[in-house]
């Protein structure tokens, strides 16, 4: 993966990999650890989801489902 999305609200990075939302947590030593997002409504800031939508990574229907954790 060569890019990730950030939010001004936290330090994690986010992307979609093989159809799954993934967040990357900094490890404190210049590295990142990936974790699958289990609850998008709680774990992914809305501004990141809007970036996914704007860039065509998700559809409007998917965006609304993710906001409601459906």
Structural features, described:
The chain contains three helices and four strands. It is an alpha+beta fold. It has one domain. Strand 1 and strand 2 (13-17) form a beta hairpin. Helix 2 runs antiparallel to helix 3 (60-68).
Structural class, judged by helices and strands?
alpha+beta
Portion in strands: 25-35%
Number of helices: 3
The ordered string of helix (H) and strand (E) elements is EEEEHHH
- List low-pLDDT spans: none
Rg, alpha carbons: 12 Å
Give a topology summary:
Layout: E1 5-6, E2 13-17, E3 20-26, E4 32-36, H1 40-43, H2 46-54, H3 60-68
Antiparallel strand pairs: 1-2, 2-3, 3-4
Helix pairs in contact: 2-3
Question: Which terms summarize this structure?
Answer:
27% strand, 70 residues, 3 helices, 4 strands
What's this, in brief?
By secondary structure, the chain is α+β, with helices and mostly antiparallel strands. The protein is built from three helices and four strands.
């Amino acid at each position: 993966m060569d890019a990730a999305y950030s939010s001004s609200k936290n330090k994690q990075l986010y992307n979609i990999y093989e159809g799954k939302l993934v967040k990357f947590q900094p490890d404190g030593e210049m590295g990142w650890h990936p974790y699958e997002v289990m609850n998008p409504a709680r774990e992914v800031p809305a501004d990141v989801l809007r970036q996914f939508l704007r860039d065509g990574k998700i559809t409007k229907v998917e965006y609304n489902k993710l906001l409601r954790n459906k």
